[in-house]
């Protein structure tokens, strides 16, 4: 397995010998300027203060990923790391394609970039993210481990039905939905009682929906795809998860409650599943692996929160500050949850936090963008 020096607690201690010579101040000099010496001891605290904790957390992720791989008998080779770099570079090149409003590419993939041009793209990305090449190489090792751990689970889920569903997403299957907007769960409960009592969805929408612009048409929205960025991700996920004629449970998005009914599905046009099966399977495989890797990466972060013991004074202070900030975020989330409970607004989909958005939406005034 791959290893980074200094990253493993089980590494044997250095053995002192009579021939060992203590480093001198002169050995510690890394630069001189007009006769003055700048030593490694001058440089290290500044680097540690500025970048130490981020690099430490990356090394911790690598160590935890190696531990998990060892438990499962997974071995990562240098070839696996090289393959992960190739995948990363391919994804980076693809990311510079222009996209239309539905998320579909409007230009051909840029496969003819030279290796020098690809490296320039990587340099730009690393500079934007404030990540060094050395740290990037460690991240690649972490990702190689996560990919090897994720692949067996992903392969088991990559069924023909899943590939066909992904084809519909990529090539424009649309849904037509009607929806009802409520202020809180009490209002949503009354909507459900009306529906259970035999009233039609359109009738209840006209009587009770807060969005008066769509209420008169029974809450009808224009057809949209899963890639349509006018609608929040939660709204699209619920809509595409329904069967024709099915009505959703109440769903909280931002500060409103939504009840959605799937009216119809419009199949994709100008594309045959048989022609795109292999490319869609490849796309679905990679996106599913990436999602699984993200879940595992989050789990590694939680493991670090529970078990990391930082001994270096500078890094220990940074770690304590990070933990305090984390605890503050948890407290804020608990306060938000209590406030939602007071408003009788539990959600079947996690609520979206952030700035106000132009919801409720309607055909005449679609939302400007997806809730982030």
SSE inventory with pairings:
Layout: E1 29-33, E2 36-39, H1 40-72, H2 78-94, H3 115-129, H4 133-157, H5 160-170, E3 174-182, H6 185-196, H7 201-208, H8 212-215, E4 224-225, H9 233-241, E5 251-253, E6 256-266, H10 273-307, H11 313-342
Antiparallel strand pairs: 1-2, 3-4, 3-6, 5-6
Helix pairs in contact: 1-4, 1-10, 1-11, 2-4, 4-10, 5-10, 6-7
Keywords:
372 residues; alpha+beta; four-stranded antiparallel sheet; two-stranded antiparallel ribbon; 11 helices; disordered N terminus; disordered C terminus
Description:
- The protein has a four-stranded antiparallel β-sheet with strand order 4-3-6-5. A two-stranded antiparallel ribbon has the order 1-2.
- The protein has helices at 40-72, 78-94, 115-129, 133-157, 160-170, 185-196, 201-208, 212-215, 233-241, 273-307, 313-342, and strands at residues 29-33, 36-39, 174-182, 224-225, 251-253, 256-266.
- The radius of gyration is 27 Å and the shape is elongated.
- The chain has 372 residues and is an alpha+beta fold.
- The protein has eleven helices and six strands.
- 53% of the residues lie in helices and 9% in strands.
- The relative contact order is 0.12.
């Amino acid at each position: 397995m791959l290893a980074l020096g200094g990253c493993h607690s089980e590494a044997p201690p250095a053995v002192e010998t009579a021939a060992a010579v203590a480093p001198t101040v002169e050995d510690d000099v890394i630069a001189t300027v007009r006769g003055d010496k700048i030593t490694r001891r001058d440089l290290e605290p500044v680097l540690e203060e500025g970048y130490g904790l981020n690099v430490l957390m990356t090394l911790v992720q690598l160590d935890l990923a190696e531990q998990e791989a060892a438990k499962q008998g997974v071995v990562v080779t240098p070839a696996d790391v090289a393959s992960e770099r190739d995948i990363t570079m391919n994804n980076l090149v693809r990311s510079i394609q222009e996209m239309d409003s539905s998320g579909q590419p409007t230009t051909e993939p840029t496969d003819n970039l030279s290796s020098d041009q690809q490296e320039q793209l990587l340099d730009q990305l690393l500079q934007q993210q404030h990540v060094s090449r050395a740290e990037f190489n460690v991240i690649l090792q972490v990702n190689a481990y996560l990919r090897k751990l994720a692949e067996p689970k992903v392969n088991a889920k990559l069924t023909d039905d899943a590939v066909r569903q992904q084809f519909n997403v990529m090539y424009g299957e649309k849904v037509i939905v009607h929806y009802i907007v409520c202020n809180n769960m009490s209002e949503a409960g009354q909507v459900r009682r009306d529906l259970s009592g035999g009233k039609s969805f359109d009738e209840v929408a006209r009587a009770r929906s807060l969005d008066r612009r769509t209420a008169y048409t029974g809450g009808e929205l224009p057809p949209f795809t899963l890639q349509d960025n006018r609608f929040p991700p939660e709204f699209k996920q619920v809509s595409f998860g329904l069967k024709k004629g099915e009505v959703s449970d109440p769903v909280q998005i931002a500060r409103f409650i939504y009840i959605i009914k799937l009216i119809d599905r419009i199949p994709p046009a100008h594309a045959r599943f048989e022609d795109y099966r292999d490319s869609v399977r490849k796309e679905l495989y990679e996106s599913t692996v990436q999602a699984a890797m993200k879940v595992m990466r989050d789990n590694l972060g939680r493991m670090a929160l529970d078990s990391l013991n930082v001994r270096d004074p500078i890094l220990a202070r940074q770690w304590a500050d990070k933990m305090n900030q984390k605890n503050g975020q948890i407290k804020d989330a608990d306060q938000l949850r209590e406030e939602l409970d007071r408003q009788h607004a539990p959600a079947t989909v996690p609520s979206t936090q952030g700035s106000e958005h132009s919801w409720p939406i309607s055909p005449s005034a679609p939302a400007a963008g997806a809730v982030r």
